[in-house]
Sequence to fold (536 residues):
Amino acid sequence: METIYHMIELVLPFSWVKYDFMKNALLAVLLITPLFGILGTMIVNNRMAFFSDALGHSALTGVAIGTVFGIVNTNISMIAFAVVFAIFLNQIKRRKTVSTDTVISVFASVSVAIGLMILSRGGNFAKYSALLVGDILSIKVNEILLLFVILIITLLFWLWGFNRLLAISVNETLAKSKNINSYLMEDLFSILIAIIVMSSVKWVGILIINALLILPAAASRNMSSNAREYHLFSILISVYSGVAGLIISYYIGTATGPTIVIIAAILFFVTLFLNSLGRKRA
Amino acid sequence: MNIRLSRNRINSARIQEAACGLHCIQIKGITVRDGERTILEDINLHIHCGKITAIIGKNGAGKSTLMKAILGEIKHQGSIEFTDLSMQTRSHLKIGYVPQHLNIERNTPMSVYDLFASFISNSPIFLRKNPLVYKRVKEQLAIFEGQELIDMKACDLSGGELQRLLLSIAITPVPNLLLLDEPVSGIDRNGMQLFYKNIEKLKVNFDLAMIIVSHDIEFVRKYADNVILLDQKIIKEGSPQEVLESIEFQEVFG
Fold:
């Protein structure tokens, strides 16, 4: 870790670099943002924005369950609950008796309500309100390592499974005829989203984590015509917003998560505008 | 005389290579239930390679369900057996499928290559265009004169172009049984004629059997070898003439 700190100080001759918490935050941003950029491409393709949003909100329930059972490390209860929640949603969705939007909305609200009920008991919800906005400046070294491991797992999963996920998103029956197990892939992808969202929600915040997942991919769609461009631009936009947001928030004294989101949103609207200009000309 | 004989022999040899007629697929007792409701009841079909079987019926007669059952996408009773009569062996049945449409939103950053490769290759398409896969995709698209589509965005394809792409995907690799959901919208008359011509081309050039869910009686009359009139169960089966002139057909479509 010391050598990495040293390298950052060498490469970046800015005043904020002297603080360890800023260096940690920078490392965390450099791990989280590519992760979100990659994952977002498929979430937007599959119209799963609502699903990932619901998962983010279920973080509250995960923490609440952790406190009920006296689990010290709420990371574990959060991830466990989100994984169960994700698979449960998939199961219900497959019954096709109610529309997916309705199912997700109902379960997300119920889970948030349960979380709020438990956490607000005795009137000390304020203790948990940091979860809503997130605080990337408080991230510790071992938590950065965890993010690093998750990034590696995601990359491996993507190398193995991206083609299959894309095939399923295009037509499930056609994918089935090519021996692609759509339920398995859907479940694995949902579990991955659950793990990633839960392990970064403390740093980014429940209220805005979904924006970080969706915006870079949505902006990238405005300027890409194939899967390679889509990924490249999504990752670049995500990392750029993350780093710029962190530095700007340091100088103007705002919360980091929302600042990152604003920058990603600006990039989205710029690409949308340029795209519509290009369309008019064509 | 001799010359004519040998020419005949060559012709028959070529036909044997294309569709040998020696592969048979037996679909036995397919039944699909959704809770209490029976969607399909005891469907038995006997299909040979080189033949087109058309399935007709009203909306909700279970045509798409039958396709999905054969593909194994939905739970069903019954079995599908595939026999190679020349060797008297049972082999694994490869099934190809041509859907009616794809879920691709406007503006989706996915080229035809991306879409095609995602179904036939494990080489991660988000990393690079794999030259080997690219070449194969182009060759397969060329079977239906679609090679120039390869770098287009999949969402910008016309209905007819999309159909040709779907046919190419379905026969990569060449299946023993090809299931087709005939397109009902988005394709003009010329496009439909080309679609039927391509199906005829498949029948002549490849060693496969085809089942087509069709809404076009003219097509059925002209191209099908065998027609199944479906309404939960098979209510009439036979040559196009037999089925289309039957009382049962009159009752369903009259």
Remarks:
- The domain at 20-94+177-183+209-254 of chain B is CATH 3.40.50.300 (Rossmann fold).
- Strands of chain B lie at 23-34, 37-48, 52-56, 77-84, 89-90, 95-98, 177-181, 209-213, 226-231, 233-238.
- The longest helix of chain B spans residues 2-18.
- Chain B touches chain A through 41 residues (CB under 8 Å).
